[in-house]
Structure to design on (279 residues):
């Protein structure tokens, strides 16, 4: 990865490079590119604007209102970066969420406050679909083309690094900088929009939190069963707060869409789980 040695050196961790690379998890960064949506081809990966939907998919609703369209991902554009081949090689993923109420995902009632939809047909079946109803408080997010690039992500904590207290603090700063750094312009940073890899936890471990709240009647927080189930989760997409997109998740938080490995393998994207964390 471009710039990794530079970041290790910046945070005085170059002597720990071998240990740190051992726990690196590849991810795919989503980089915004300012554009006029009218110039974007149908099916292009993008944040905001209007979704390109087939006739078989309509805007999902929640509490008698329409969910907000967050992003669509053309998986043919993603494939070259998906080295572990976790995602389908083609098709389109669509992400929707209630950005007005912003449910946290802790309650059963929150399950309808977000939707992840998948269409594996031809791009010629897609049509740019207007919002069913726009109001002063409910309208499309600004539209940005999405470009993809490979990054590495790292767990918040790990055994075997042999870090002292100072090195642990440097590692935390390094872990943040890896997913924020713009290697084309070191004076700017990226929002933490990415797919796959390790979630950037703000509070608890994201995978453990999702499994717990999905099974809190069955699993104890520190149980072996919860740990094993969380190890079967995949980060499908995390979306950071972003001024350009006019989204603030709680207090400068992140929203996470995660899916069980088996459900991902079987393309059961309706089984995707959700959680919001913030500072």
């Amino acid at each position: 990865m471009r710039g990794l040695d530079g970041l290790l050196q910046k945070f005085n961790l170059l002597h720990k490079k071998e240990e740190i690379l051992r726990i690196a998890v590849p991810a795919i960064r989503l980089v915004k590119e300012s554009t006029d949506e009218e110039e974007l081809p149908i099916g292009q990966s993008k944040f905001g604007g209007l979704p390109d939907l087939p006739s078989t998919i309509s805007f999902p609703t929640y509490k008698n209102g329409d969910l907000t369209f967050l992003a669509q991902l053309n998986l043919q554009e993603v494939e070259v970066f998906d080295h572990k081949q976790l995602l389908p090689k083609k098709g389109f993923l669509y992400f929707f969420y209630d950005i007005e109420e912003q449910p946290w995902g802790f309650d059963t009632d929150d399950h309808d406050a977000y939707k992840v939809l998948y269409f594996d047909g031809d791009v010629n079946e897609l049509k740019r679909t207007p919002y069913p109803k726009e109001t002063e408080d409910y309208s499309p997010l600004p539209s940005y083309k999405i470009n993809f690039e490979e990054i590495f992500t790292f767990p918040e904590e790990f055994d075997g690094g042999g870090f002292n207290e100072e090195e642990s603090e440097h590692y935390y700063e390094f872990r943040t900088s890896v997913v924020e750094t713009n290697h084309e312009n070191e004076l700017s940073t990226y929002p933490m929009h990415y797919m796959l890899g390790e979630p950037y936890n703000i509070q608890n471990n994201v995978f453990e939190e999702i499994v717990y709240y999905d099974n809190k009647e069955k699993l104890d927080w520190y149980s072996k069963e919860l740990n094993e189930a969380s190890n079967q989760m995949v980060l499908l997409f995390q979306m950071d707060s972003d001024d350009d997109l006019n989204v603030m998740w709680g207090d400068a938080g992140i929203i996470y869409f995660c899916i069980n490995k088996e459900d991902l393998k079987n393309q059961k994207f309706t089984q995707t789980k959700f959680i919001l964390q913030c500072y």
Q: What stands out?
A: The first helix runs from residue 4 to 10. The chain has seven helices and 14 strands. Helices lie at 4-10, 17-22, 75-78, 165-180, 206-214, 224-230, 261-265. The CA atoms of residues 51 and 129 lie 6 Å apart.
